[in-house]
Amino acid sequence: MKTRLKLGAIRRFLGPDYQDLDDDAPVIRRAHLSDPTILSRDGDDAPRVALQVVSSGAVDDYDTIIDPAGLDLDRFRTNPVVLWGHRYNEPPIGSDRRIWEEAGKVIAETVYSRTARADEVWQLKREGHLKAHSITFSPVETVPRGRRHWASVCERYGVDTETGPYEIYTRSVLLEHSDVSIGANADAVTLAVSRGLRVSEDILTEIGARKQDSETRAVVIVKPRLFVRNLSAEIRQAIDRERGKL
C-alpha cells in the first residue's frame, strides 16, 4: 500500500467536489486499528452495519498526528463510499451512513454491501479478524517539528516539543477510507478457513494467512504482502530473504 502520492494519480476516481485541489497536492494514507462495534441483527436480510473509528488524533506509526477536528469531511459525505485496500478500480464494499468527528476521533457508521468482496470483508470483520482502517487525505495545513509556532501547536495538542511527533496535520481534506489487512490476525483467519470460512486467495494473501490444499489437506502458506515503511536497506534485504522462504 502506497502511503504517499500525488492527487493527480487518483484524480479520475474522485468526484467533482475535489476539482479545486491541485494535481500536485500531496495525498497521504494512514492506518488505524480499532475494534468495530457490530450493530446488525442476526439474519440474512438484516443490514450489515458497523460502527468504527477510522482515524484518531493519536501519534501514529509515522510519528505524525492528524487532527480529527481539522479533517474536512463535507466533501467525502457527498459520496461516502468505503473501499477494500484503496482499490479504486473495484466496486466499493459499502458506504458510510454517517461519519463525524467526536472527542478526538473520526467515527464512521458503515453499511456493507452484499457483493462477493463485501461478503468476505464482513465475515472477517464480524468474526474479529479484521480491525484496520486506512484514510486517504490531502493536507492543507501542516506544522513540522521545530518550525514556527511549533511550541504553541504542541501545547494545543498536549505533546512534548522535543519528544513529540515529527509533524502535525492541523487541516486536511478526507478523500476516502478503506478497510485494509494491516493488523489482521493471520493465524485466526487460517484457523477460521480450516473450519470452513470462505475467503478468496487474494484477501488471504494480503492478510498473510494460510489455506488448506483441497486434495492433500496440507496447510499452504500464502505469501503475504508485508507493510513496510521507513526501513533501512539491511532490514529490507532481510525481509526479502524471509519472503523467499515462503
> Which structural class matches the secondary elements?
alpha+beta
Order of helices and strands: EEEEEEHEEEHEHEHHEEH
Count structural domains: 2
Q: Count up the helices.
A: 6
Topology, number of strands: 13
- State which percent range the strand residues make up: 25-35%
Query: Radius of gyration from the CA trace?
Result: 19 Å
Global mean pLDDT:
80
Contiguous uncertain segments of 5+ residues: 183-189, 212-232
- Shape, per Cα inertia axes: globular
> Distance between termini?
20 Å
Task: Give helix % range.
Answer: 10-25%
Biggest beta sheet attributes: 11 strands, mixed
What is the assembly state of the chains in this entry? single chain
How would you describe this protein?
The chain folds into two domains: 4-180, no CATH class; 186-245, no CATH class. It has helices at residues 74-77, 116-126, 150-157, 186-194, 201-207, 233-245, and strands spanning 4-6, 26-33, 37-38, 48-56, 64-66, 71-72, 81-84, 94-102, 105-112, 132-144, 167-180, 210-212, 219-221. It starts with a strand and ends with a helix. It is globular and about 55 Å long. A hairpin with a 2-residue loop joins strand 8 and strand 9 (105-112). The chain contains six helices and 13 strands. The chain is α+β, with helices and mostly antiparallel strands. The strands form two sheets. Strands 1, 2, 3, 4, 5, 6, 7, 8, 9, 10 and 11 form an eleven-stranded mixed beta sheet that branches. Strands 12-13 form a two-stranded antiparallel ribbon.
